[in-house]
Design a protein that fits this description.
Strands 1-2 form a two-stranded parallel sheet. The protein has helices at residues 25-28, 43-59, 82-93, and strands at 32-38, 65-71. With 94 residues, it is an alpha+beta fold. It is globular, with a radius of gyration of 14 Å. It has three helices and two strands. The protein has a domain at 28-45 and 59-73. Helices cover 35% and strands 15% of the residues.
């Protein structure tokens, strides 16, 4: 396969959740990486995107596929605190 675009740049992440150590593309090399960008107050993200990411995680082996959620804040910045996201993840993943 011809490399057209080079390697993706390193992630710049403020905080990681649900992982014992920070993730990096280098650590995930050799796996398919599914990146689900979402906002916890987005109805479409909650009803469509996140369930689709959960299905992908349940379908494929973690040795072959890494499903990563990327919380992207594009509105309601004051409400989007790490504490709010941690509670959202806890409720969503139970």
């Amino acid at each position: 396969m011809t490399e057209l675009y080079g390697q993706a740049p390193a992630w710049q992440v403020e905080r990681w959740f649900n992982t014992p150590e920070p993730l990096s593309l280098e650590r995930l090399r050799g796996k398919v990486v599914v990146l689900e960008a979402f906002q916890m107050l987005c109805p479409g993200c909650v009803s469509e995107g996140l369930p689709q990411a959960q299905r992908a995680q349940a379908t494929f082996s973690p040795q072959q596929v890494a499903v990563i959620g990327l919380h992207t804040v594009f509105e309601h910045h004051q409400a989007m605190t790490p504490v709010s996201l941690e509670a959202f993840l806890y409720e969503s993943l139970c």
